[in-house]
């Protein structure tokens, strides 16, 4: 049955709104409108869809096309002028908000040697994934961290944070991920500038990773009561090593290959309340099966190359490219190389979905689990 015919059938047979316009009804709708009111049955099917409907489109941003524009921002504005010198990624289906997908924001931040951005805090939670350059650092509530390639870093909501690059460093670019659109949708977003512009460094450099970032070892007697992870920086080398070790003993997920979540080491749960992140390894030639999930995903290729089929469309990616998967959209990943592994970093809003009891996932049953490719 064609989809439109099936929808009409479901509406009639399954008791969805199905009221034809008459002159009298149109008059009635106008009268209601003048009272800032409306008849539910005119909008019911739209506001209560059978399943999640996304306005976001699957999109891929090629880094080698964006990079020159990001570097141009370095010449055009200072961090003092801009606050944060960032080129954000805008989903073409979401002109109403600054969102990359769903209620998630992402952008590419660039800073040069000796530059400093002032300290602030906000209701939005933030994370970073380091793309290139050396000497970058961030200070989160007095915990100063050095940032290396493919490191994953947290800036939980409510924490003071600022970024910079050491005098002897190079131009650095990293990806920012924030739940700004979600905070604004909830009308819950506050923003504050630190009174000192630069906060003090109150702990030894990289103390959070030294304390909490050791595999399966928890510092004896240390406790933690905040709602986010005490580990603020997850370094690339141990992450990649963990994936390689796990790959030796598992077939992995049929949908995601060798797939590991960044967790709060104190609870084993999500690192922040609203957003989580993962790193996955696709073995040479691996082609995962299609599945879909309630939740929005922003991916960055951290290593290798391949393609993903998202909503029936093919997106080819290589290192540093960024792409998004909207909620409840079929997606599958392919490592295009026969000899090299490929790694995809991703962040998502699954902690929000899980907290609210909304998370669901399903695998594609038809066609051996692979989508027909439209384009
Ligand atoms: O570094 O705090 O890309 O507040 C957008 C908003 C980065 C940040 C962004 C922000 C930040």
From TrEMBL:
Pfam families: Cupin_2. Transmembrane segments: none annotated. Keywords: Dioxygenase, Oxidoreductase. GO terms for molecular function: gentisate 1,2-dioxygenase activity. InterPro entries: Cupin_2, GDO-like, RmlC-like_jellyroll, RmlC_Cupin_sf. It is an enzyme of class 1 (oxidoreductase). Its EC number is 1.13.11.4. Residues 108-171, 280-345 form the Cupin type-2 domain. It comes from the Bacteria. CDD domains: cupin_GDO-like_C, cupin_GDO-like_N. This is Gentisate 1,2-dioxygenase.
């Amino acid at each position: 049955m064609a989809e439109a015919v099936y929808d009409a059938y479901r509406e009639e047979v399954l008791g969805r709104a199905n009221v034809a316009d008459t002159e009298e009804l149109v008059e009635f709708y106008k009268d209601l409108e003048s009272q800032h009111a409306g008849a539910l049955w005119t909008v019911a099917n739209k506001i209560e869809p059978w399943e999640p409907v996304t306005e976001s489109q699957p999109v891929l941003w090629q880094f080698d096309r964006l990079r020159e524009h990001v570097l141009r921002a370095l010449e055009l504005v200072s961090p003092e002028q801009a606050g944060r010198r960032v080129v954000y990624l805008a989903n073409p289906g979401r002109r109403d908000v600054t969102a990359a997908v769903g209620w998630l924001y992402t952008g590419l931040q660039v800073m040069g040697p000796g530059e400093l951005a002032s300290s602030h805090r906000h209701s939005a939670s933030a994370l970073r994934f380091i793309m290139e350059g050396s000497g970058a650092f961030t200070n989160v509530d007095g915990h100063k961290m050095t940032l290396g390639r493919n490191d994953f870093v947290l800036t939980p909501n409510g924490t003071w944070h600022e970024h910079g690059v050491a005098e002897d460093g190079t131009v650095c670019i990293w990806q920012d991920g924030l739940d700004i659109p979600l905070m604004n949708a909830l009308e819950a977003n506050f923003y504050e500038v630190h009174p000192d512009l630069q906060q003090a460094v109150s702990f030894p450099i990289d103390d959070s990773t030294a304390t909490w970032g050791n595999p399966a070892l928890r510092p004896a007697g240390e406790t933690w009561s905040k709602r986010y992870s005490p580990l603020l920086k997850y370094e690339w080398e141990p992450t990649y090593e963990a994936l390689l070790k796990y790959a030796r003993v598992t077939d992995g997920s049929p949908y995601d290959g060798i797939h590991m979540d960044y967790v709060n080491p104190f609870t084993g749960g999500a690192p922040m309340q609203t957003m989580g992140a993962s790193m996955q390894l696709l073995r040479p030639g691996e082609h995962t099966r299609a599945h879909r999930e309630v939740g929005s995903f922003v991916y960055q290729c951290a290593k290798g190359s391949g393609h993903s089929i998202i909503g029936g469309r093919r997106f080819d990616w290589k290192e540093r490219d960024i792409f998004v998967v909207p909620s409840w959209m079929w997606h599958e990943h392919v490592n295009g190389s026969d000899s090299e592994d490929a790694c995809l970093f991703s962040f998502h809003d699954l902690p929000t979905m899980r907290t609210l009891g909304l998370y669901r996932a399903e695998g594609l049953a038809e066609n051996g689990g692979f989508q027909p490719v439209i384009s």
